[in-house]
Design goal:
- By secondary structure, the protein is of the alpha/beta class.
- The protein has a single domain, classed as Rossmann fold.
- It has a five-stranded parallel sheet with strand order 2-1-3-4-5, sandwiched between helices.
- The radius of gyration is 14 Å and the shape is globular.
- The chain starts with 9 loop residues before the first strand and ends with a helix.
């Protein structure tokens, strides 16, 4: 567990479709995570900056600011740049995936995404982040 979230790892879900956000939220709760849902990129940035989650699940297509803009913002901010971000988007063309990874996504999944796929992606992203963090601060 992180120092910020000692009981359960915290996942922030930034997704503008309420049904999808709820589905991802339930998947993460069943996997043992605390979850905060946000609709839209602007609110997502506010919550991510305040909560400093262990990982973020991020949609790209949102009505206010795009998930790519959220991701670019996070990668510029010292306190947010190392948080793992799993992009989950309907945009599945190779160019879209490349743009997401170049903007700093830890992993890029295309919708529809299954329970096991999402759970594994989040677990791997958090474990990789912790392993890298342990190496930096020893």
């Amino acid at each position: 567990m992180s120092d910020t979230h000692p009981d359960k790892p915290l996942i922030v879900i930034v997704e503008d479709e309420p049904d999808t956000a709820e589905m991802f939220s339930e998947m993460m709760r069943l996997s043992g995570y605390e979850v905060v849902k946000c609709q839209g990129g602007t609110r997502g940035i506010e919550v991510i900056a305040h909560e400093r989650p262990d990982a973020v699940i991020l949609d790209l297509m949102m009505p206010d600011i795009s998930g790519l803009d959220v991701l670019r913002y996070m990668r510029r901010e010292p306190g947010l740049r190392d948080i793992p971000v799993i992009v989950v988007s309907a945009k599945g063309m190779p160019l879209d995936i490349r743009k997401g990874l170049e903007a700093g996504a830890t992993l890029y999944l295309t919708k529809p995404v299954g329970f096991d796929e999402l759970r594994t992606a989040v677990q791997e992203a958090i474990q990789r982040h912790r392993a890298e963090g342990d190496g930096k601060f020893v």
